[in-house]
Design a protein that fits this description.
Largest sheet: 7 strands, parallel
Structural class: alpha/beta
Number of domains: 2
Number of helices: 14
Low-confidence stretches: none
Number of strands: 13
Order of helices and strands: EHEEHEEHHEHEHEHEHEHEHEHEHHH
């Protein structure tokens, strides 16, 4: 069987979101199925490290697809031509888009519908494209994979899709996220927070991540607790970050907040494992990988209620209403005041995170790919 894969998010300078999911699942699927041929379709020059085995053939067809007009050109003209040329049996696309013009069966991975729920947090041109074409993609694809029952139910609520078409393919976290010893923790704290404990957020600096409410919650925490704890925000500056940066300039506790920017993976692991707690109160997530990363590192988690995170973390996290900064602050205060709560969360988190492995994710995605072929 020839399996064509959309690999345009395998970017050498950084892997986030779609790229991580693609990298961790497809390399395992390639290794587990040496009898099949894989065609990796890039939209720009690629790094050879992404060619995982001898049964992978890479092709490049440009131009780089980074806005709606080029998306249409790439998915509906460039990709179908390659699928015909290489006689592909199935096309796998893990970024929520698929081709409307090919006859080749397609397996579509749609992580969430955040653009519908928070349209202000996406470029208008991208929003219009997603609103117009997502229902068409869902109809066109032979199988659809999504990362939680929360996302599956949202898709079924928003669009007239046959529920049997949608497969739950839980995401996961890399095994290299591990606890670190006291010496490493002290070095990390000396480097970033002058030796102080810190709450940590990891992810892009983006409006959907609800960082303004996190700042407000941190203010309430500082006022009520008079603690020297810091707040570390680790991630690249993404779309519409300007207002957040401006607000931070006049923030009362500015000296207690650190923006690290994008960090190499090895550094992010140490920073995560040395945190007092992870605070990940995003407004909308299909899964929420940083929650599990913290649990693997034996760090307690505060995250959003009424979201996919409750499905994933179960009773191993504290939950706050993300639109109510006082609710977030209350959980930060509870965690700080009661070490028994913190210890219990760490214990439960170690159990929960073991349920989510990339090996299982890859197997679930493979079953969804086979469904599309059938």
């Amino acid at each position: 069987m020839r399996i064509a894969v959309n690999t345009r998010f395998l970017l050498d300078d950084y892997l986030e979101g779609f790229g991580y999911f693609l990298y961790e699942t497809i390399r395992r699927i390639v290794a587990d199925n040496p009898q099949h041929e894989f065609i990796f379709i890039f939209d720009r020059p690629y790094n050879r490290r992404f060619i995982f085995a001898d049964n992978v053939k890479a092709v490049v067809t440009g131009p780089p697809a980074r806005h709606p007009l080029l998306w249409k050109l790439w998915y509906d003209i460039k990709v179908p031509a390659l699928l015909r040329r290489h006689k592909a049996d199935v096309f796998v696309s893990c970024d929520g888009f698929c081709s409307m013009s090919t006859k080749v069966p397609q397996c579509l991975v749609l992580h969430d519908l955040s653009f519908l729920h928070y349209p202000a947090f996406i470029k208008k041109s991208h929003l219009l494209f997603c609103k117009r074409y997502t229902p068409k993609f869902l109809e066109k694809a032979k199988s659809v994979a999504t990362v939680s029952f929360f996302s599956r139910n949202d898709i079924l609520t928003q669009y007239p899709v046959n529920k049997d078409k949608i497969d739950i393919v839980y995401s996961a976290v890399k095994e290299i996220f591990q606890p670190v010893n006291r010496e490493v923790k002290e070095k990390v704290k000396e480097k970033y927070t002058d030796g102080k404990e810190y709450f940590l957020y990891t992810g892009a600096i983006h409006p959907r991540k609800n960082l303004m409410n996190l700042l407000k919650a941190f203010s309430v925490f500082k006022k009520k607790q008079k603690s020297n704890l810091k707040l570390v925000l680790a991630g690249r500056l993404a779309w519409k970050f300007d207002s957040f940066i401006e607000a931070l300039k006049t923030y009362k506790y500015r000296d207690d907040v650190l923006l690290t920017g994008y960090l190499p993976e090895e550094e992010l692991i140490k920073l995560t494992a040395s945190a007092y707690a992870m605070v990940y109160t995003s407004l909308w997530e299909g899964f929420g990988v940083p929650v599990l990363e913290a649990m693997r590192c034996e760090v307690p988690v505060i995250t959003s209620s009424n979201s996919s995170m409750q499905e994933i973390a179960k009773d191993a996290a504290l939950y706050a209403d993300p639109v109510n900064y006082n609710s977030i602050a209350d959980q930060m205060l509870l965690l700080y005041k009661d070490e028994s709560v913190r210890a219990e969360l760490i214990k439960k988190g170690k159990i929960i995170e073991q349920e989510y492995t990339w090996a299982r994710t890859a197997d679930l995605l493979w079953q969804s790919i086979l469904k599309a072929v059938r």
